[in-house]
C-alpha cells in the first residue's frame, strides 16, 4: 500500500494526457493527480495504473478509463457539499474522485464480492463515503433523495425513472445509455417534470444489471 514519488510522477503524466484530451475542470484534474489509482488495481496490473485505459477488477467488472472518470466528473459540475448518488461503486476509484471534489457520496453496488472488497478498502486509504450500499441501482436511493447529482458508471439500456425523480431541481444525472456502445447523456432537472437532455458521444461500459447478486 505504498504511494511513491514514481507513482506521483506517473499521475502527473496522466493529468497532462487528460488535459490534452480536453478535460479542463481544475478540481477533477487535481483529484486524478492526487488519488493513488494503482492501489485500486490487482497487483498484476500496477504497471498499467497510470495509462489512460480501463482494466479488469473483481467480479468481471472494470476500473474505468481515467478519461471516462474525468469526463463524467466534469459533467457533474460538483460543488463542495453536494450530495451525490453513484450507481456502481466498482473499485471505488470514481467514488474517491467525488470525495476529493468535496461531495457527500452515497454509492450503490450490486456485486457482493466487489461491495465487500471496496467497503473495506476505501476507508483504509482515507476515503469515507456517507454510505456504501449493496443494492439495485435501478431503484436509486429514495430515502436519501433529492441528490444534486447522480452518476451511473455502467451502461444502462434505458434511463431509470427513479433516478430522474430523485434529482433535485437544477440537479444533474450523468448516465451512459445504450446496449453495446453507450451515448454519454446528461439530464438537467429544470422543474418537477421538466428535464433538459444533452448527449456527448460514444463510450463503452460494462452493462448495468438489475437486481443484486
TrEMBL record:
GO terms for cellular component: cytoplasm. It catalyses: [protein]-L-isoaspartate + S-adenosyl-L-methionine = [protein]-L-isoaspartate alpha-methyl ester + S-adenosyl-L-homocysteine. Keywords: Cytoplasm, Methyltransferase, S-adenosyl-L-methionine, Transferase. Coiled coil: none annotated. It comes from the Bacteria. The active site is at 64. It is found in: Cytoplasm. Its EC number is 2.1.1.77. Its main location: cytoplasm. GO terms for biological process: methylation; protein repair. It holds the Pfam family PCMT. The keyword Methyltransferase applies. GO terms for molecular function: protein-L-isoaspartate (D-aspartate) O-methyltransferase activity. NCBIfam families: pimt, PRK00312.1. Belongs to the methyltransferase superfamily. L-isoaspartyl/D-aspartyl protein methyltransferase family. Catalyzes the methyl esterification of L-isoaspartyl residues in peptides and proteins that result from spontaneous decomposition of normal L-aspartyl and L-asparaginyl residues. It plays a role in the repair and/or degradation of damaged proteins. This is Protein-L-isoaspartate O-methyltransferase. It comes from Winogradskyella eximia. The gene is pcm.
Amino acid at each position: 500500500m505504498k504511494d511513491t514519488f514514481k507513482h506521483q510522477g506517473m499521475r502527473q503524466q496522466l493529468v497532462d494526457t487528460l488535459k490534452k484530451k480536453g478535460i479542463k475542470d481544475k478540481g477533477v484534474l487535481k483529484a486524478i493527480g492526487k488519488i493513488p489509482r494503482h492501489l485500486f488495481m490487482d497487483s498484476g496490473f500496477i504497471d498499467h495504473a497510470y495509462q489512460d485505459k480501463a482494466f479488469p477488477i473483481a467480479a468481471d467488472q472494470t476500473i474505468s478509463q481515467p478519461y471516462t472518470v474525468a469526463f463524467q466528473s466534469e459533467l457533474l459540475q460538483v460543488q463542495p457539499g453536494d450530495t451525490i448518488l453513484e450507481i456502481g461503486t466498482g473499485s471505488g476509484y470514481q467514488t474517491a474522485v467525488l470525495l476529493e471534489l468535496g461531495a457527500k457520496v452515497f454509492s450503490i453496488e450490486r456485486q457482493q464480492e466487489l461491495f465487500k472488497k471496496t467497503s473495506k478498502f476505501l476507508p483504509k486509504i482515507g476515503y469515507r463515503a456517507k454510505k456504501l450500499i449493496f443494492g439495485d441501482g435501478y431503484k436509486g436511493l429514495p430515502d436519501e433523495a433529492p441528490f444534486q447529482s447522480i452518476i451511473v458508471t455502467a451502461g444502462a439500456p434505458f434511463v431509470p425513472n427513479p433516478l430522474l425523480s430523485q434529482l433535485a431541481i437544477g440537479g444533474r444525472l450523468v448516465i451512459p445509455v445504450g446496449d453495446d456502445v453507450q451515448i454519454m447523456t446528461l439530464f438537467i432537472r429544470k422543474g418537477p417534470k421538466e428535464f433538459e437532455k444533452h448527449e456527448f458521444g460514444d463510450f463503452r461500459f460494462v452493462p448495468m444489471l438489475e437486481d443484486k447478486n
